[in-house]
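tokens incoming
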């Protein structure tokens, strides 16, 4: 008989995701399918689909609505982004972090079949996205800086991991 495992809730209990905050979000493809590009010794190279994913993400940046995108990166099978909510002093955000993720995922999913037909994008296996996403509240300026660095160094860690896998 298999041991039953319960998923940890991804959201911070008691936190209002519409309140002004900064959040690091990671969104992964289903079963970590590499659909958005590749990483080689020269660095990250986005495919046409990866460029579309980045454009769809950046469309969420709406300073007039108090929603800003800080550092982000599109990796072959996932993406990282820092969202800042409540950046406009006179506007109460109407979208929460989960709302933004849902809008983004749906936007990409809706266009994907057309990309397959007209632009040669890879077909995805079963689903495009994992059902949820990972998030971390950023509480201090130092945490923000370390998160930015983590995101920007992601391709180098990918190459390092591939190199260590080759040595095994």
């Amino acid at each position: 008989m298999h041991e039953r495992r319960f998923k940890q809730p991804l959201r911070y209990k008691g936190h209002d995701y519409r309140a002004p905050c900064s959040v690091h979000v990671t969104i992964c493809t289903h079963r970590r399918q590499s659909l958005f590009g590749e990483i080689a010794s020269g660095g990250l190279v986005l495919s046409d689909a990866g460029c579309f994913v980045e454009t769809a993400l950046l469309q969420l940046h709406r300073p007039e609505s108090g929603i800003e995108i800080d550092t982000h990166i599109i990796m072959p099978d996932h993406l990282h982004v820092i969202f800042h909510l409540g950046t406009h002093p006179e506007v109460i955000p109407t979208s929460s972090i989960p709302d933004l993720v849902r809008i983004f995922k749906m936007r990409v999913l809706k266009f994907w079949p057309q990309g397959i037909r007209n632009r040669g994008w890879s077909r995805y296996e079963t689903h495009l996205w994992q059902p949820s996403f990972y998030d971390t509240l950023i509480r201090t300026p130092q945490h923000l800086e370390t998160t930015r660095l983590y995101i920007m160094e992601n391709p180098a860690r990918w190459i390092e991991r591939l190199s260590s896998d080759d040595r095994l």
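note: Strands lie at 21-28, 37-40, 43-46, 67-74, 78-85, 134-138.
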